[in-house]
Structures are given as structure tokens and as C-alpha cells.
Specification:
The complex is a heterodimer of chains A (301) and B (230). Chain A is mainly alpha-helical and 301 residues long. Chain A has eleven helices and no strands. Chain B has a five-stranded parallel sheet with strand order 4-3-5-6-7, sandwiched between helices. The chains are: A mainly alpha (301), B alpha/beta (230). Chain A: It comes from Aliiruegeria lutimaris.
């Protein structure tokens, strides 16, 4: 794919839309979860206020260079994921910088933020951060295994590693979606999706009630604001990949909004009705149930 | 009523030796090197707190204050019986989340320290450390009459009486104990104060640092931490 300078403002516009969509959608999902508990819940604009508040704090302290770079790596993981994956199929400006092998790059970017965070949280010197990060890496690694297998199955099925071509192959009707042409691979990938959105039952890593809040224990002020920004961008970016390779992609922003919201509701609904797993329980769960489905998906293709 | 606070614990000259693990010492590393260790200096930053100026443009500061007022993050640190009255605020009956109030598990991310009831001297030490680790602008709310004048603990041998001698308090919520409704009303008042720009507790603490430290050290006899630990 050729590069043109106009792609840069186009990609930034996509990022802007996704940021605002993410801020509102996560608040709506939080509100829905609160309604399940019988509470009115936060206002839908609460995320914006929290973000401004954290940027407006007057004092901040640093624990070193890597401590600075932790949130930066995390945010670049989320933004990179958006930039290298086509958001809207067929749109001239929401294609971003997608290219022939972007599926592999996307898999890498999903992990990139967690690794950066491990370095940053490690330097903060707080034992809770170190424990939280090691828990997070262990759990995310186990959860990503079925996803990796599902992606191989999809790549064999469509004979390509380009997300755009995979979306193109699914156009022309509901039953062309990977969901119906290769349901086993989708089932395997959904294990990973539920496991890595950091919602209950797999949120022991960052849950405030556990060892206090895990990796971000020492993060505050603008550092925390960067991480909050990533926490709304990253789930959307990940959902875009799932939507593209399993659920037919989106041809316009309305379809995008509906599909991402519905996909995000899957872990949200599972989250409000299930208690939290411990790390060793969730790893065992993914290896016992997720991994065999992933292997089966490869064998079926 | 006799005010016992002036003399409270101040006429005791008992010296507490520093705990063994905090004393400066020489340690031999596994490869035979001899290094000096001074735990109180090595593990903590000793710089005194600074006064942070407001934003230059008033409208920006007002906007920031509005955001701060609508996003109050409370440090989940319950000191006395008042902690019990705070928990119902998370439940469907009162639900403080709809006012932008959240509980944060770490002092780094919190802006509001609730001293929820009496403070024993031992707890005061932890409250001071937690307060100093919070990032400014930060607010302190005293809950219940024990934080105002000692309340029912007015003649206790081990409980501080007036909280504002040890930490800069922005707001008191009177009662023994105040009900959750009173807490919500108090939060609304605190929001008004923050929006009016009157909650500058962090700067007050930095300006009168010597005063607060003198009061804290006069009651905390086993002072085994640096003067300002963040």
C-alpha cells in the first residue's frame, strides 16, 4: 500500500472519534453495570471530568525514566493498534496505515502496552505494582493463546494476513461472516476477548479491592490521565480487530458504533453476573477450555 | 468543659529508640563490598512540600476547580467508627458515584482524605503519611465530633482532640456519627468550597509546615520516618 501525507490527518481524525466514542461508551457500560446493582451510576460525562481533573493536578512526582515511559508505551500500544488496523471497510479516510501483514502487527501491539507497563510499574518500586504486573502478564499470556491459534486458523482459511482482505472476504451477507464460516475459531477468540478486556471475572489484575489496584498503584496526575486515555482507547481498538476478522467489519460509523457496543457488552454482561477468578484459576480456565477450542479450530481448517 | 488538648501528651519526655531496621549501619554485600545504609534517607525523598501556584488565567483555574469538585476521589482509609457510615454511600440507597465521588485504593490517586472519626496517636502517624503521599490539590474532611474537639474521647489518654492542629482540614461534618445523608450534604458543601477556590489545604500545609510538624511530633513520640515522606 502506498503512503500519502493526507493519511496522517485522516488517522488522527479516526483516533479523535474513537477516543470520544470510548469515553462515552465505557461510561455507559459502567452505568449499565450500576443499574444491574440497582444504583443510578455515574453520569455519562464522568470520564471527561476525571480526565480533566487528573491533568489539572498541581503536583506530580517521578520515580525515574521508565516510570515516565510506562504510560507512554501503554498509550502508544493503544494508538498503534488503531493506526495499523482499518477501522471502516471501504472508507477512504478511515483505512489508517493498514498494510499487507497488519494482522501480525496487531497481535504484537495488543501485548506491547502490557510489556511497557511492566517496565514502568516495576520502576515505581511499589511491591503491589510488581505483583500486579506479574499477575497481569501471566493471565494475559494464557488468555491470548486461544486468540493466537484462532488467528492462525483464520489466516489459513482466508490465505492472507491482511485485515482488509479478510473483511473483504466477509462482505455480502450475514452468513459470509467468520462467525458462521468458522464458528470454532470465533469461539476460541472470544475466550481471549473476555479474558483480556479486564472485566470481571478476569479483572483480578486491576481490581481496586484486590492488592490495591495492581500495576497503577503509584501512578497519579498526568501519568494516570494517560493511562485512563488508553483504558478507553485500547478496548475499542481490540474490539475493532475482533469485529474486522470475525464479525464482518463495518462499512460506516453507525455500523461500527453498534457492533463495537454489542461486542463490548459480551464481557460486560459476563462481568456483572460472575464473581472474580484468582489468577491461577483463570489461567487454568483458559488452558483447560480456551486452548482445546483453539487447537480444534486449527484442526478443522 | 476543660480543654485537655494543650497539655495532651506534650509533658512526656520519654525517648523512643529508633527501630533496629531503621538505624544507619554498615552492611557487607555478597561480593565482599562494604556499604553504608541509612534507611530513613535511602528509601524516602526528604524535600519539603512546595506551595503550588494557581493557574495564571482565572477562567482556567475556575474550570479546573469545577472538574476537581465533580471528580472527588476518596482515599479508602477508615480511621474510626465513621468508616461504617461511609460504606452505605457505595450502595444503591445512597450511591455517591452519581456525584462523581469514587473510592480509590491508593493515596497517590486520591484527592480527599476522610478522617472518619477519632484518631489515636498511632493512627495519626499513618494518616499523616497517607496525606503527604497524596497529590495536590488535596482536601481533608473531618467526620464526627471527635475530629472537632475530641467528642466522647475528649479526655482520652491516646486520642488527639483537634484535627486541624495536625492536618489542614477543609470541612467538618458534625455528628456522632453523622448519618450518610449528612455525609452527602457535606460533600455538596465541599464541592461549593472547591468551586469557590477556597480549598487550598495543600498550600496551607506547605506554608505552615513547621507548625504542623511541631504539633505532630509533640504527640507522636516514636517518630521513625522522615519529616515529609512522599
Amino acid at each position: 500500500m502506498t503512503f500519502e501525507w493526507i493519511q496522517v490527518p485522516y488517522a488522527l481524525a479516526t483516533l479523535f472519534i474513537i477516543l470520544n466514542y470510548g469515553l462515552l461508551m465505557t461510561a455507559v457500560v459502567q452505568k449499565l453495570a450500576a443499574r444491574v446493582g440497582g444504583r443510578p451510576g455515574i453520569p455519562v460525562w464522568q470520564n471527561y471530568i476525571d480526565l480533566v481533573k487528573n491533568f489539572a493536578l498541581r503536583s506530580k512526582i517521578s520515580h525515574g525514566v521508565m516510570y515516565y515511559l510506562g504510560p507512554v508505551f501503554r498509550l502508544s500500544g493503544g494508538i498503534g493498534l488503531i493506526f495499523f488496523v482499518p477501522t471502516i471497510y471501504g472508507s477512504t479516510w478511515a483505512q489508517n496505515f493498514s498494510f499487507a501483514g497488519d494482522l501480525i502487527l496487531a497481535l504484537y501491539f495488543i501485548f506491547f502496552g502490557t510489556l511497557g507497563m511492566a517496565l514502568g510499574a516495576g520502576e515505581s518500586g511499589h511491591p503491589h505494582s510488581a505483583i500486579g504486573v506479574s499477575r497481569g502478564l501471566a493471565q494475559v499470556t494464557a488468555a491470548e493463546l486461544p486468540m493466537a491459534l484462532a488467528v492462525y486458523a483464520i489466516a489459513i482459511q482466508y490465505q492472507t494476513l491482511s485485515i482488509t482482505e479478510i473483511v473483504a472476504a466477509q462482505q455480502g451477507g450475514l452468513f459470509n461472516w467468520t462467525l458462521f464460516t468458522n464458528p470454532i475459531a470465533v469461539a476460541a477468540a472470544m475466550f481471549a476477548y473476555v479474558g483480556t478486556t479486564m472485566r470481571s471475572p478476569f479483572d483480578v489484575v486491576i481490581a481496586p479491592q484486590e492488592i490495591p489496584i495492581g500495576p497503577p498503584t503509584e501512578y497519579h496526575s498526568a501519568y494516570l490521565a494517560l493511562m485512563q486515555t488508553n483504558r478507553v482507547i485500547f478496548p475499542i481498538a481490540k474490539t475493532i480487530i475482533y469485529m474486522n476478522i470475525f464479525f464482518g467489519g463495518a462499512t460506516n460509523w453507525a455500523e461500527f458504533a453498534i457492533k463495537v457496543f454489542l461486542l463490548y457488552m459480551i464481557p460486560a454482561v459476563i462481568g456483572v453476573v460472575h464473581p472474580r477468578f484468582r489468577v491461577e484459576q483463570s489461567i487454568r480456565f483458559f488452558l483447560k477450555w480456551g486452548l482445546p477450542v483453539g487447537v480444534l479450530a486449527i484442526l478443522m481448517v | 468543659m476543660k480543654d485537655v488538648d494543650d497539655k495532651f501528651l506534650k509533658n512526656i519526655d520519654k525517648e523512643f529508640p529508633l527501630r533496629e531496621e531503621l538505624r544507619p549501619r554498615t552492611v557487607t554485600t555478597p561480593d565482599g563490598q562494604e556499604i553504608e545504609i541509612e534507611p530513613l534517607k535511602d528509601y524516602f525523598c526528604e524535600a519539603a512540600p512546595k506551595v503550588h501556584p494557581k493557574a495564571y488565567i482565572p477562567i482556567v483555574e475556575n474550570f479546573y476547580n469545577w472538574a476537581r469538585a465533580n471528580s472527588l476521589w476518596i482515599l479508602g482509609f477508615g480511621t474510626g467508627c465513621g468508616a461504617i457510615e461511609m460504606r452505605p454511600l457505595m450502595t444503591p440507597r445512597f450511591d455517591a458515584y452519581r456525584y462523581g465521588i469514587q473510592w480509590r485504593p491508593t493515596p497517590r490517586q486520591a484527592n480527599l482524605l476522610m478522617i472518619s472519626g477519632y484518631l489515636s496517636v498511632k493512627t495519626l502517624k499513618r494518616a499523616v503519611r497517607a496525606y503527604e503521599q497524596m497529590q495536590g490539590p488535596k482536601y481533608v474532611v473531618g467526620l464526627g465530633s471527635c475530629t472537632i474537639n475530641g467528642g466522647m474521647y475528649w479526655d482520652s489518654y491516646n486520642t488527639i482532640k483537634k484535627l486541624d492542629q495536625y492536618l489542614p482540614v477543609d470541612l467538618y461534618i458534625a455528628g456522632c456519627m453523622p448519618r450518610p445523608e449528612a455525609l452527602l450534604a457535606g460533600f455538596m458543601d465541599l464541592k461549593k468550597l472547591i468551586k469557590a477556590g477556597k480549598c487550598e489545604g495543600a498550600n496551607k500545609y506547605a506554608e505552615n509546615f513547621a507548625f504542623y510538624k511541631e504539633n505532630q511530633k509533640s504527640v507522636i513520640k516514636d517518630w521513625d520516618m522522615p519529616d515529609y515522606n512522599w
